[in-house]
Write a structure and sequence with these properties.
The structure holds two protein chains of two kinds.
Chain A (H helix, E strand, L loop, with lengths): L11 E2 L2 E2 L8 H15 L2 H15 L5 E3 L1 H7 L3 E6 L9 H14 L4 E6 L3 H13 L2 E7 H6 L1 H9 L3 E5 L6 H15 L3 E3 L10 H9 L1 H14 L5 E5 L4 H7 L9 E9 L10 H4 L1 E5 L2 E5 L24 H9 L2 E7 H15 L5 H13 L8 E6 L7 H8 L7
Parallel strand pairs in A: 4-14, 5-6, 5-8, 6-7, 9-10, 9-14, 10-13
Antiparallel strand pairs in A: 1-2, 3-4, 11-12
Helix pairs in contact in A: 2-4, 3-14, 4-5, 5-7, 9-11, 10-11, 14-15
Chain B lengths: L2 H12 L3 E7 L5 H13 L5 E4 L10 H12 L4 H13 L6 E5 L1 H7 L1 H11 L3 E4 L8 H9 L3 E6 L5 H10 L4 E4 L15 H9 L6 E4 L5 H6 L6 E4 L1 H9 L5 H13 L7
Parallel strand pairs in B: 1-2, 1-8, 2-3, 3-4, 4-5, 5-6, 6-7, 7-8
Helix pairs in contact in B: 2-4, 2-12, 4-6, 5-6, 11-12
Classes of the chains: A alpha/beta, B alpha/beta.
Chain lengths: 402, 267
């Protein structure tokens, strides 16, 4: 399943990753590493996971040739990997269902999760409902406000939503509280991290479970084009959908990776979430990676119109890809992302989430600069239903008249 | 002999639990935090843990979080902790002073220069809550070179392998996390604490100091024969928080006197 030898035994991707958490959690992380390693080699686990991915999640998700968008932009051919079509509406379910099975295998019946946009919270609540587990989702008060639909969905699915009022009241603080909660309940609770971040083994584990995106896309693009894409492009907050799309191509040097971060109101303002573009290495939430921080190491508040990208950290493997040049990271503003949102809705009849709208907006700028024989693989990590209220507020679309 | 070793040699000989009160540097403001520390020493604190405020203190419960947040809002920076140590030493405070913080603070300030400056200022040890032994080689070497003890933590969940790992590296004392949880005052000490401490006692001669969840004289007394020291934090911050501005220092002083057994009265 793994296509490179990274991370090492302590969870390092070069100088990044590792395990920087209070001692109370260390044994639990060791146990998780052992359980995950065993599950990877266990055919029964893989058979059950693959069955659920097919029949419950609805995989493989489609790879769609966006002919209208390609024509409109007038450059490279654009293929869209449709994670928006997965059950619950985003890629988050791939990881949630796999970790849910892992939790069950470890004999844990209680699940904690953090969520930003609420997609991971919904995916986890869904899996817990299906597997009969008790689910608590930590969510920042600001995100609860802007993602009320997902809060309702989680409650409907039987999850308890813990509203986090500390700090910036977004994903960073939700993750702090989830870790604090796990420290207290570590003996009987499984912490189901949604991003390719956190202490080892999470960045590795989440990458492996999300790599189904890139593995499918690889087969699908080979079938459609008879060759690999020139570019794989995806949005990066914590970076789980991007690493899942990229990693199966990591040994294919001809496939260039572009991660699109949230520039918020602009990367030269104080209000953005462009961790890789503007941050420097530090330690947050258990691993070493690029981080938005002041000169004294205090973590800064991120800002993005999209709750899922509103995070001052990033998964450690992305930091490693940045330093080694394996991937390039660019940033797209709130306003550009809204343009991307409209563009895909209008040209292809696909309403994207605000997170991948950043990747769409970048493709809208980038594709026209490429020759027509080039191929772009665009990761569409989720659908936009959850963002309609935000978009209405931002664009002032009148929902009440024709 | 280091200040830490001397302190425990003395308290062990006297058969008492060494009390290490904690205060967040810059809480409620820088000058008051210094006055609080002096009062805590005068009231019988045998060592002081100085918390360096951090934006994301994930091992801390609401009380310490709040103090950290307020200190940061007041403009406290990590190097203020070094100034506080210098001023306490200049004013004759002779007990061990231990800096407690999160790893990112040390990385951002430059680990080598921060440790060098901490030693020069007169600090005796460092506690880095989110630095486990397997990631600590470089930090440990820097501390050792500068005569500081890097204090390692063990928790009730630590298995024998981890206990052996920590014991082989530790100096000064071992910080024994008293509860499976975050910092914060609790009614009673955890039922599993005695067993945990006995397990450690069998493996090391180093002083065992219990923190997290110790807030009352009876908690400190319950450690007699099991541990060598106790760290008390959240309850002291709660007292600062709930006291009138001009009474904060005296209220904290009285409570530390209760904790150390110098006074029977309760605040």
């Amino acid at each position: 399943m793994t296509t490179t030898s990274l991370p090492d035994a302590l969870g390092h991707f070069g100088p990044y990753g590792g395990r920087f958490v209070p001692e109370t959690l260390m044994v639990a992380l060791n146990e998780l590493t052992v359980a995950f390693t065993e599950a990877l080699d266990d055919e029964t686990f893989q058979v059950e996971l693959n069955d659920l991915l097919r029949n419950y999640v609805g995989r493989p998700t489609a790879l769609y040739f966006a002919e209208n968008l390609t024509r409109k932009l007038g450059g490279a051919k654009i293929y869209i990997k449709r994670e928006d079509l997965a059950h619950t509406g985003a890629h988050k379910i791939n990881n949630a269902i796999a970790q849910g099975l892992l939790a069950r295998r470890m004999g844990k019946k209680k699940i904690f999760a953090e969520t930003g946009a609420g997609q991971h919270g919904v995916a986890t609540a869904t899996v817990c409902a299906m597997l009969g587990m008790e689910c608590t989702v930590f969510m920042g008060a600001e995100d609860v406000r802007r993602q009320s639909l997902n809060v309702f969905r989680m409650k409907l699915l039987g999850a308890k939503v813990e509203v986090v009022e500390s700090g910036s009241r977004t994903l960073k603080d939700a993750m702090n509280e989830a870790i604090r909660g796990w420290v207290t309940h570590v003996r009987d609770t499984y912490y189901l991290i949604g991003s390719a971040a956190g202490p080892h083994p999470y960045p590795w584990l989440v990458r492996e479970f999300q790599s189904v995106i890139g593995r499918e896309a690889r087969e699908q693009i080979l079938a459609a084009e008879g060759r690999l894409p020139d570019y794989a492009i995806a949005c990066v907050g914590g970076g789980s959908n991007a690493i899942g799309l990229f990693h199966p191509f990591v040994e294919d040097a001809a496939v260039k990776f572009i991660g699109v971060e949230a520039a918020g109101e602009g990367i030269d303002t104080e209000r953005h979430a462009a961790t890789l573009s503007k941050g420097r290495p530090g330690v947050l939430h258990g691993s070493k990676s690029y981080l938005l921080q002041d000169e004294y190491g205090q973590v800064q508040e991120a800002h993005s119109i999209s709750a899922g990208l509103d995070y001052p950290g990033v998964g450690p493997e992305h930091s490693f890809y940045k330093d080694t040049g394996r991937a390039t990271y660019v940033a797209i503003t709130d306003i550009e992302a809204l343009e991307g949102f409209k563009l895909l809705s209008e040209t292809e009849g696909i309403i994207p989430a605000l997170e991948p709208s950043h990747a769409i907006a970048y493709v809208a700028k980038f594709a026209p600069t490429l020759p027509k024989d080039q191929v772009i693989l665009l990761g569409l990590s989720g659908r936009g239903d959850k963002d309609i209220n935000t978009v209405i507020a931002a664009l002032g679309i009148d929902a009440g008249s024709e | 002999m280091s200040r830490i070793a001397e302190t425990f040699a003395r308290t062990k000989a006297a058969g008492r639990i060494a009390l290490f009160p904690f205060m967040t540097v810059g809480y409620p403001d820088l000058e008051t935090s210094i006055a609080l520390v002096k009062a805590m020493v005068e009231a019988g604190g045998e060592g002081i843990e100085l918390g360096i405020p951090f934006s994301d203190p994930l091992a801390d419960g609401p009380t310490v979080q709040k103090s950290s947040y307020q200190a940061l809002q007041g403009g406290t920076v990590p190097t203020d902790a070094l100034d506080v140590v210098r001023r306490l030493r200049a004013d004759g405070v002779a007990v061990p002073l231990i800096l407690m913080g999160y790893l990112n603070t040390f990385l951002a300030c430059g680990e080598e220069s921060f440790i060098l400056d901490a030693a020069a200022a007169g600090a005796d040890g460092l506690i880095i809550v989110d630095l486990p032994p397997e990631e600590s080689d470089a930090t440990k070497a820097l501390c050792k070179k500068n005569g500081l003890d890097l204090i390692y933590l063990l928790a009730p969940t630590s298995d024998d392998g981890r206990i052996a790992e920590v014991v082989s590296r530790a100096s000064g004392f071992i910080y024994c996390v008293g509860v499976v949880g975050v910092t914060g005052a609790r009614d009673a000490i955890s039922a599993e604490l005695p067993g945990f401490l006995r397990r450690l006692r069998a493996k090391t001669e180093l002083p065992l100091v219990v923190g997290f969840g110790i807030s009352k004289r009876e908690h400190v007394q319950a450690l007699e024969g099991l541990a060598d020291g106790a760290i008390v934090a959240s309850v002291l911050i709660d007292i600062v928080e709930s006291s009138a501005r001009e009474e904060r220092v005296e209220k904290v002083r009285s409570y530390v006197e209760v904790l150390t057994g110098r006074s029977e009265a309760s605040t």
